[in-house]
Design brief:
CATH topology of the largest domain: Ribosomal Protein S5, domain 2
Mean pLDDT: 92
Order of helices and strands: EEEHEHHHEHEEHHHHHEEHEE
Number of helices: 11
Low-confidence stretches: 169-177
Largest sheet: 7 strands, mixed
Bound molecules: adenosine-5'-diphosphate, ligand LJ64HWYM
Shape: globular
């Protein structure tokens, strides 16, 4: 077996919760977290460098950095105590804590790092299990790993699998709990959906963070039957409407309405409710749909044209918020069919 000296891992950013698809629908974008890795001689240890989003805050200690921490966890389940000597350069253009799946992409990168560095030969489906042990949101992890516009769900766990030590955890980065065990198999299931290729994604990213954990804490434990039916009806229509070209903007816009998570998160994202109601295919021609990206605060607008005007309408709304005057930037992105990749050289 050839051991490659260098390899590069690329993982796309994602947007989860598309419209009514809370915890279900996500998509992968043309914005990539990359890890340039080079094997070093025995005893050289781990040399990690980092540029891009989070460069000032992200720890570069193997046991603390989400990417390497995830890799160490995977390797430990194979009886491997540490990463082999490696030089890793991380380039991260994905803003942290903004609802563009930075943690999901970091976890996917970590699992792929373990797989390549440890020559574990895992299938992507098995890697999916590992990712879900660390980050429980399949709507981020599935598109980051597999690419495209993706629907996913977690299987219900058997009573014996509900032992605390077996349950996949959602935010391991902040609660400092002990390592999860070797993953169960087939935890997650997914389906890549069709995508009308004329539709691009505009991510309007305000200059504040919302931790996913905090945004989940804002949600109720129970929902009314009417609200559940409201979302189920729309999610079924939306998955098909977004696959048809030419896309029916009025239908998609209506089908992107949600009663499960956005109403409860509006106090965390000033101006969001106003944007969702006033930025429509009529007021902003070219707009196809608009929603919160992941747990926010980024706003995701789907559009076929007038990308700058649509982005500016959202930016104006952020800027108009009394006493806050929120600044924002935007990125016009493609929905990419390929998910995480590794390229070997030498
Ligand atoms: N490239 C990265 N390297 C290390 N840690 C990361 C990276 N990206 C994200 N994280 C961790 O994930 C956290 C953000 O996760 P989360 O609150 O779920 O927001 P997001 O919506 O961006 O996924 C960061 O504060 C950081 O701890
Ligand atoms: N379904 C999750 C998605 C979180 O996505 P993120 O990009 O904000 O981490 C949720 O809404 O909690």
């Amino acid at each position: 077996m050839t051991t490659h000296q260098k390899f590069k891992i690329s993982v796309p950013a994602t947007s989860a919760n598309i419209g009514p698809g809370f915890d279900v629908l996500g998509m992968a974008f043309s914005l990539y977290l990359t890890l340039d890795c080079e094997r070093l001689g025995p005893g050289a240890g781990l040399q990690m460098s980092y540029e891009g989003e989070g460069a000032e805050d992200v720890p570069l200690v193997a046991e603390k950095n989400l990417i390497t921490k995830t890799a160490l966890y995977v390797l430990s389940t194979y009886g491997i105590a540490s990463l082999p000597p490696l030089k890793i350069h991380v380039n991260n253009p994905i803003p942290l804590g903004r609802g563009l799946g930075s943690s999901g992409s970091a976890v996917v990168a970590g699992v792929m790092l373990a797989n390549s560095a440890g020559e574990l030969k895992m299938s992507k489906d098995r890697m999916f299990d590992y990712c879900l042990m660390v980050e429980r949101h399949p709507d981020n992890v599935a598109p980051a790993l597999f690419g495209g516009f993706v629907a996913s769900f977690l299987r219900e766990l058997e009573p014996e699998e509900l032992e605390p030590s077996s349950i996949p955890r959602s935010e391991p980065t902040r609660n400092g709990a002990s390592q999860p065990p070797t993953p169960l198999t087939d935890i997650g299931h997914y389906m890549q959906l069709g995508w009308a290729k004329e539709v691009k994604a505009i991510a309007i990213i305000p200059n504040f963070e919302v931790a996913t954990e905090d945004a989940r804490a804002a949600l109720p434990d129970n929902y009314s039957r009417a609200d559940v039916i409201y979302n189920l009806q729309r999610v079924a229509v939306l998955t098909h409407a977004l696959s048809r070209s030419p896309v029916n903007a009025d239908l998609v816009y209506k089908a992107m309405s949600d009663k499960i998570h956005q109403p409860y998160r509006k106090s965390l994202i000033p101006g969001m409710q106003d944007m969702l109601e006033t930025i429509t295919p009529k007021t902003c021609p070219g707009l196809v749909g608009i929603c919160l990206s992941g747990a926010g605060p980024t706003i995701l607008a789907l559009a076929t044209e007038n990308f700058d005007k649509i982005a500016n309408a959202v930016q104006d709304c952020f800027a108009r918020q009394p006493n806050l005057s929120i600044e924002s930037e935007y990125k016009v992105l493609d929905v990419v069919h390929d998910g995480a990749q590794v390229q070997y050289s030498n």
